[in-house]
Amino acid sequence: MIKLISNYSYGQLDLSERINTEKSLYTAILISLTGGNIEANSSTFRQPSGIDNNDWFGNLFQLKSGYDLYNSNFERLLKTAPLISGNLNEFESAIAEDLDWLIQRKIASSFTAEITILTKETVEIIINIEGSKEKYKYLFEV
């Protein structure tokens, strides 16, 4: 995968050289949390050709490869629930659902999500994977 985001700044591709692929989980976690499934969770049912499935385009590859589909429960909640401390448990649950594939595929035995509300429209998420020194930091604006 090509790294899309890291430490709050979007990556840039230098096309004059070769494209470097990412060897961490930054992009996979980002797509898991914000894959574009705002309408509803993806299913194995696919619309006929020419009709949008309203999900991340890569889910077609995921389905054909036998992988779990990215569903972005966090993104959907981020667009519908206010950023207040009373909703933090809901946000944590949505993140846990979106990243459950880390456990299912045995990439991690456990992970935690630290959620910090920075402003009424901005939230910081830090994903800590057990046994990893790397922290996966993301900044989202509503």
Give a concise summary:
The protein is an alpha+beta fold. The protein has five helices and five strands, in the order ββαααααβββ.
Describe the protein in words.
By secondary structure, this protein is of the alpha+beta class. The chain has one domain. 28% of the residues lie in helices and 20% in strands. The protein has five helices and five strands. The protein has helices at 26-34, 59-65, 73-80, 88-98, 100-104; strands spanning 5-6, 9-10, 111-119, 122-129, 135-141. The strands form two sheets. A three-stranded antiparallel β-sheet has the order 3-4-5, with helices on one face. It has a two-stranded antiparallel sheet with strand order 1-2. The longest helix has 11 residues, at 88-98. The two termini are 26 Å apart. Mean pLDDT is 78; it is low at 1-14.
Task: Write down the Rg.
Answer: 16 Å
Helix/strand order, N-terminal first: EEHHHHHEEE
Q: Average pLDDT, to the nearest integer?
A: 78
Strand content: 15-25%
Largest sheet: 3 strands, antiparallel
What is the percent of helical residues? Answer: 25-40%
Report the total helices: 5
Residue ranges: pLDDT <50 for 5 or more in a row? 1-14
N-to-C span: 26 Å
Which overall shape is indicated by the principal axes computed on the Cα atoms?
Answer: globular
Domain module count: 1
**What oligomeric arrangement do these chains adopt?**
single chain
Which structural class best describes the helix and strand composition? alpha+beta
Number of strands: 5
User: In what order do the strands lie side by side in the largest sheet?
Assistant: 3-4-5
